[in-house]
Amino acid sequence: MKHLIHTLNKAFDNRVRLGVMAxxxxxxxxxxxxxxxxxxxxxxxxxxxVSALEKVGYVLVSKQFVGKKPNxxxxxSKEGKTAFQDHxxxxxxxxxxxx
Amino acid sequence: MKPATDPLAQLTEIRAIMExxxxxxxxxxxxxxxxxxxxLAGAATGHWYLHTHYGAxxxxxxxxxxAQERQQALPALLTLALGMIGLALVVAFYFTRRRAAQDGRxxxxxxxxxxxxxxxxxxxxxxxxxxxxxxxGAASFVIPGMLLFYGLALLNASKYTLDEIRLLxxxxxxxxxxxxxxxxxGLIFFALxxxxxxxxxxxxxxxxxxx
Lengths: 99, 211
Prior knowledge:
The complex is a heterodimer of chains A (99) and B (211).
Chain A: H1 15-26, E1 30-31, H2 32-39, H3 43-55, E2 59-66, E3 69-76, H4 78-96
Chain B: H1 7-22, H2 29-54, H3 58-64, H4 67-103, H5 110-135, H6 142-157, H7 164-181, H8 186-209
Helix pairs in contact in B: 2-3, 2-4, 2-8, 5-6, 6-7, 6-8, 7-8
């Protein structure tokens, strides 16, 4: 039998990515700086993990300009939300242990 | 960075992040108690002022009096109202900052901004509307209006902060509607809603989260 641990999504195998998804689940649309504040991270660290989530299609990025300043906002995609929910369900199953 | 594989730790952290990033949780119950005390002191001052200038049954006489009389009383009442709001905000800010510092949380983050904005818009509109009511001869609706707009503002803001704020909002709305039916009882309802309401819910929140 496949061990339950393998049902966990590899994309969320990291605290930062997990945190990013958690923030995006609870909030409709979040700017880069808000995300950074909420998770207490540095620019580079956050940027690399967000782009990893963007690559697998879990996060949607939109770049706009507020005046002359670039303003990047992030949203969880439909696939991202489903994947995250599945991940949470898998975690709960692991916690409950084999039935 | 260590991969997060302990499921319990992961779930706990996810829940905490979701809460923290969407709600302002540092609101201190003592802020409510302080604002309530300010409101009671303000209601007493207002009562005293009207009594010394307009005699017994002052509130009712002002409500039913001439437009000129009301205009004369406006600067004093407006000063009192703004003074109360200012003082209540200072007290609320003090206790909330203290709680944020105790919990090691940022005071000025995205949920705090959303909370203040969702309060400020209905409160500004309501405040201007109440001044209009007062000057246009519907002064008996001023305090019900204040309670209603404040209740709606709290209801609107409650999705960005602690759940008790929603109940406080509903309480104010209910008091506002009852106050509308009892003109002349305005100051009593003011003291009930802004005074005792704040103190009651403030103590409740303090007991639940800060002890």
